[in-house]
Amino acid sequence: MPKKIYINCAKSSSDTSTDSNLKIIHVEEEKVGEELIPELPLHDKLNASAIISITSVGYDETIGASIISTVGFHMQASFGAKFSKRILNTWHELTYSASQSVKDNDLNKREPQMMAKAVFNEIAKLRSTVTPGKDQSKKSLERLFETLSDQAAQPITRYLTSLIDSTNPGLKDVYERRYTTETKSDSHYVKRSSLFLDFFASTMQNPQGMALILFIVGRPPPLCTIRVGNAGVFDDSFEELISGMDDNFNTVTPFNLLQEENSTLLRCVDSGGTAKRVWLEEYWSDGMFKEGDKVRAFLPKNSSEMDEFHISNKSGAVILNPSSVVGVNRISNGHFCTRKSVLMEIFKGFDKPGLKTQVGIIAHKMFQRAVKESISDEDTLRKMILEISKNVEFVQNQYYYDIDPVALNSELQSFVKAIAKFVQNFLSNRNPLPGVVPSTVIDRVLAVEEEMISEKFGFRGSIDMTMGVKVDADQKSTLMPFELKTGKVSQYGDHIAQVMLYCLLLSSNNHESCERGLLYYCGGDELKAVDTKMNELNGLLRMRNEVTYYLHRFFDDPEACDLLLPGPIKNMKICRQCPQMLNCCLRQKICDEAFIRDSPWDAMLEAELWHLNKEHVQYVNRWTTWLRMEGTEERMRGRRNSNIDYDEEEEHSTEECGIAMSVQQFKENSRVLTLAPLSNVNLIQMFSPYDQVLLNGIGERTLPIFATIITVELQQIDVQFSRCCEFMHSCDFLVRRVKTKPFFDSTITTVYRLMASNTIANRKRQLIIDLDEPHFRISLCSEIVQKMKLFCKGLNAEQKSAIVKTMLADDYVLIKGFPGSGKSSAVIALIRTFISNGNSVLVCAYTNSAVDHILLKLKTHITDILRLGPSFIVHPDIRQFTLEAIFANKEPRLDEVAEILSSTLLVGCTCTTATMHPLLRKRTFNLCIIDEATLATEAMSIGPLLAAEKFVLVGDPLQLKPLVQSERARKQGMDISLFSKLEQKYPDAVLVSATSRFCDLKLFKLKFLNNAQFREICKLSNQMFYNGELVAANDEVANAFLNVTVDDDVAEEPWVRRCLSSLPEHAVVFLDTSNCKDNSATRQGIAHVENKLEVDLVVKLCQTFSKSGLDDDEIGVMSIFKTQVECIRRSLKSSGSNGIEVNTVDQYQGKDKDVIIVSFVWTKELKRKLNTTCHLLKNARRVNVALTRARKKLILVGHYNDLKADNPVFENLHNILSETQIFPVML
């Protein structure tokens, strides 16, 4: 229920005695008090009465809303973005209430007071106009500076100065230079714009300053959330869409929705606090809007003078959830089958590209190059076909999709004459001839295959070519999108729709009107001009809303269990050929229990699913629900872990704030760009490897570029592009992270692929879903036995048993082993045995490092290896086995590429790669091995298994489980790996390796009395996790100990000497930092945690071990926090210790080193700031991994008292460690 809040309207803050001084407003109850102020950077949590006090500061009935505006601005700058958005919801209702109470006063006569509101309005306008580096930015900044210098606005200026000075003194100089310089030249404002960027980038780590910057930096029209009693932030600036639509549109904020029979009413408030009524009519009123949706409304110009207006087919537009970015093809094809457009956005990889697709891709490249280089000679074009077709990617596709190279070449040759004629007729340096488009001349080519996002309209597309075109000799060059089609003329208008949407994309991104695009059918040599039309664009935007409506329910609303889809077209001929047929039928059956009907189309659906039983359909629905839950939680955690104070009411398709960066290095051959920030910011806190980013040139007329981050360091990132641009190395960029769907795409695809009707999928369903018992043969032929004996030399009885059992298996074997039990050795011998018999093996793991770990051990025995995946993520010593490396210096021939792809006996990749890679759709392996299988979810494991006849899962169920962030999905069983599921059902299929590099304490006393050092390392996990079952693998392992030279000059500090000690009781050392100064961890966002003191201790230890004779590859460093890992890496690199592996605990699973150093990072100071404990360190499996990686010396670094407080895992560790093993560091 809405709750009343009383606002003090007295002329003085102390005069609150009379009821007449109180104004009443209503807000949602959950928006009041504690909920209203979740995380204040500068203030304790406030109650409702305190909020009243803040909102009434300076309030005077003779001034009214203007001072409330000022107060609202103070709150925005003071409390941070997340809180300020919520408080401003209330503030706008305050503004509206106050305006009504003083509506008879002439506020315009009160110039000094109104200047405060003028400042606010100027800032609001900047939010939709500032683009750093553009002329418009300079003018807008100039207006803002001049306004802030006015005497009436000095209170705000003083407040901002004190805010910056108190929160980050380093920003004061930048601030003062920007606001106090009096020069008005154009060059000066260019400099001011640059300083503004510096100020902006430097302030990103500052929640208080961040709020201010978020308010000033230019953004698209603000979003609004439809919710009763809740008005959002907005501005009153007009926006031009494109010529042909109503010229100007105003953005308003709905706070209430009323659905009527033929229309939808949105009750809104504009920036002046005036109530507006927006009627959605005709196809805008189809019921797709609901409370909680985010809406961007474009209203006719002069709407500020009206209280009620209508959006219909002829006037205005509404964008539903613009943060959901939909592809242009999904919109343009949606008119034919909206259901297919939605399904193709959810389920990727079901369509199989054929000859026409390959012809289209190569023809596009040929045409684009011919136009850019003005090539009209037919012989040159024919040579170009051969040159492009020899690209290794195209040659691979010919193998993957069974494309006949002769047919491919014949199809491409048919386009030569048309391309030559086009270049001759329409390029500016030729003699233009009249065509379908009269006297058309292509003046210049601005971009090729340009990927663009319209944040305003919520869609994205890749434009074949962006051109400057002259129509008629006396006209200037006009920006136009150019779309090339190599197929037939479409009868459905989808090609024309594409071009119109591309016009909208260009208009949205370049701030200038693009009224026309060009559509060229190369096969028919036909060029068409496509003009944008208001009603057709509205229809496309409405289709975009419909596709978004269903996608939003799927990806962002896990409570929507029904997952309704658009209705099927029920065209028997077309549906049978649709690549989404199986998924379409499954979703229909799941959503409609009584879906069997008498019509031919319904009978066809039933026939499509005849091979699936009820459990199979339930399995699909269960995993679909879990993955949706996990995707939602992943996005929410991404917001909470952001280093900025994320505004939950203002979600866009790209991160709100980009980072200004300069080019450090450009590797053209690999299309890799090295970028460094222009200001001192921590990039690790903002980006992660494999993030998609959008780059906008600063100070250049460039179109946005999409790229993928390869590596991230504190002050540097490497990004890779799908194509090269001429200006890449010549300008600075504003880099923003693009929000994408989670791992969802590939994982959900494998679940639905498991439902296919083929031999392998049928058997895997029986094993995974029906839990049929695995089958084993009785005996092996003598030849296999002899080869097996050869490769099993040196293995123990349990390892040999694992190999024999796998050779006898028809379905699967599980190899379960303790840490260091020789699982890897058994796997290596198994792979060698299989390959020696001419069998093919697919090796997979959850991480790239785990895959490479196995291949590194095999490469000395096997040279017939193929490593799938981008070369930059592969270990340097394994890169030679990637296709990229194999064909780096030679021309790829189809027969040679096909031989490698089809006949290489050992192929390695991650589980994620296996789910989508076309090779694994084409080829079936004799055996699939998934190492560290307990790390992968069941759904993630399915992809590799569908590519093999039988499989082996290797793992330790007592170590890390699959990482599932959604608590609901986790409680329902999503974090149970396939290994654990099968182990529980069929323990006879499990081969247990009880031996280990560790030993059982009782057996140790009997057999290995001479190695008390090893006992100490073993004791921790043996008592904490394994109930004393660990047994040493052999005498060599049991008797291993650390033997280093201790030099007093190298090891002066007592804690260093203790770590170098070879005494048995010092095999495990816990360096306690409790008594050190500056021992607290720091954070920027919940997930970005680091501890500088521990970094220094770890680096000191690594340097000392190296000087004492240990090789770098014998030392390992780990932490649970990625930021800490990167800080240690950077410090070690600076000290010259590049060979020491530093990684997260999760990445270290399956590896071991002689010396392991663990940095725990966490301190109670973080607990106080975040009001939470560290759940990662409460995970016993993760701690188990950390404690079981060391062979000879285990060093733990952390604040001992803080770690064991309220943490059962560390309490248990405390009970096992002796007093001599806990060593205090005094610094």
UniProtKB/TrEMBL annotation:
Q: Does the keyword Iron-sulfur apply?
A: yes
Q: Which cofactor does it need?
A: [4Fe-4S] cluster
Q: What's the chief localization of this chain? A: nucleus
Q: What are the residue boundaries of the DNA replication factor Dna2 N-terminal domain, all occurrences included?
A: 271-468
User: Any idea where the DNA2/NAM7 helicase-like C-terminal domain is?
Assistant: 1015-1200
Biological processes, Gene Ontology terms:
DNA repair; DNA replication, Okazaki fragment processing; replication fork reversal
What are the DNA2/NAM7 helicase helicase domain coordinates in residue numbering? 795-890, 898-967
Molecular function as annotated in GO: 4 iron, 4 sulfur cluster binding; 5'-flap endonuclease activity; ATP binding; DNA binding; metal ion binding; single-stranded DNA helicase activity
Give the UniProt keywords, A-Z. Answer: 4Fe-4S, ATP-binding, Chromosome, DNA damage, DNA repair, DNA replication, DNA-binding, Helicase, Hydrolase, Iron, Iron-sulfur, Metal-binding, Multifunctional enzyme, Nuclease, Nucleotide-binding, Nucleus
Enumerate the InterPro entries for this protein. Dna2/JHS1_DEXXQ-box (IPR026851), DNA2/NAM7-like (IPR045055), DNA2/NAM7-like_C (IPR041679), DNA2/NAM7_AAA_11 (IPR041677), DNA_replication_fac_Dna2_N (IPR014808), P-loop_NTPase (IPR027417), PDDEXK-like_dom_sf (IPR011604), SF1_C_Upf1 (IPR047187)
According to UniProt, the reaction catalysed is: ATP + H2O = ADP + phosphate + H(+)
Record-listed E.C. numbers? 3.1.-.-, 3.6.4.12
The record ties this protein, via Gene3D superfamilies, to:
3.90.320.10, P-loop containing nucleotide triphosphate hydrolases
Query: Where in or outside the cell?
Result: Nucleus; Chromosome
- Gene Ontology CC entries for this record: chromosome; cytoplasm; nucleus
Task: Give the family, as the similarity comment puts it.
Answer: Belongs to the DNA2/NAM7 helicase family.
Its biological function? Key enzyme involved in DNA replication and DNA repair. Involved in Okazaki fragments processing by cleaving long flaps that escape FEN1: flaps that are longer than 27 nucleotides are coated by replication protein A complex (RPA), leading to recruit DNA2 which cleaves the flap until it is too short to bind RPA and becomes a substrate for FEN1. Also involved in 5'-end resection of DNA during double-strand break (DSB) repair by mediating the cleavage of 5'-ssDNA.
What protein name applies here?
DNA replication ATP-dependent helicase/nuclease
